[in-house]
Amino acid sequence: MKPGPGPWWSRRYSRIRCQWPTSLPGIRFNASGTLAYRAAAPIKASGAAAVRAAARLALDAAGRGITTAHLPEQLDTAQGKLTLAVAQWHAVHDRPGLWLRARITLRLSEPDAARAQTFQDAVRQVTLELRQEQERRERFTATVLTKPDAARTWWLERHLDDLNGLDWDAFREKVLPLVGAADDTHTKAERIARLLLYVWEKLGADPGQHARFTATVRTVFEQMGWADAVPWLPAEESAAAAQPAESGAKEDKRDQAAETGVGL
Fold first, then answer.
1. pTM for the whole thing?
2. Which of 20, 62, 133, 217 is at a distance of 20 to 30 A from 157, taking alpha carbons?
3. Measuring CA to CA, which residue among 55, 57, 56, 75 is closest to residue 66?
4. Strand pairing partners for 35?
5. DSSP track, 41-55
6. Residue 78: is it exposed, middle or buried by C-beta count within 10 angstroms (0-12/13-18/19+)?
7. CA-CA distances (angstroms) from residue 59 to 67, 121, 193?
């Protein structure tokens, strides 16, 4: 026995012609068809008009719940779900005694179909542009930002027309940190070179400063067991260079003490 209202219930029909919204604002599905409904106590006692209104509202709620979840181009999917939901007799859960079924066809008007197509074309264009931009970034990362040498070549090519404006400091500060393997031999050598240049500028032209620095470096390396790492200055020469500087420093202190009368 099929589920549904008993044969003794009164059955009525109603023509349906309305619009239900799609998930795209401003575009609607046109719905048309027939609604059949049956009523028993207690809702039957409210009158034919009330029963008819309750049945139409129940169908409207079911239809809107389905169509608002679909885009205009999903017309066939929305139609299939609507048919499964309302084609068979079923009870309305919040209206005891009311049963209904409906045969509804969904359509798109020509103006709405044209607007939906325009929207989809715009979405596809934006999606394509975003995908192209993503592809460009991925290729750039794979070809330029994987190895420091590749990044340096790219930076040089960008400034071939203006080599005088080639700013390697900006490259080291802005681009090189983004390279995946930035700690290559060349980069480490550049860092050491910049450090030595900084030290050299600080030492200036004072021979005593140079001698003290060289002696200090040699002492540190010897204590670490790395004496063979500083072959540019023999130990004897380093000591000889440091002694005049120390003697000069002592004489300066004695002269200063003589002038001030301190330590005499």
1. 0.53
2. 133
3. 75
4. 14, 102
5. TTGGGG-HHHHHHHH
6. buried
7. 12, 33, 80
Within 13 Å and on the Cβ side, how many CA atoms surround 246? 10
Please name the amino acid found at residue 17.
Answer: R
Convert the pLDDT of each residue in 82-97 to its tens digit: 999 999 999 998 888 8
CA 153 to centroid of chain Cα atoms: 28
CA distances from residue 176 to 23, 164, 166, 168 in whole angstroms, order as listed: 47, 20, 15, 10
Please state, in angstroms and rounded to a whole number, the distance separating the CA atoms of residues 251 and 198.
29
pLDDT digits (tens, 9 = 90+) for 174-195: 888 878 655 555 556 666 777 7
What is the C-alpha radius of gyration for the chain, rounded to an integer number of angstroms? 44
Domain boundaries, the chain: 10-108
- Which CATH number is associated with domain 10-108? 3.30.479.30
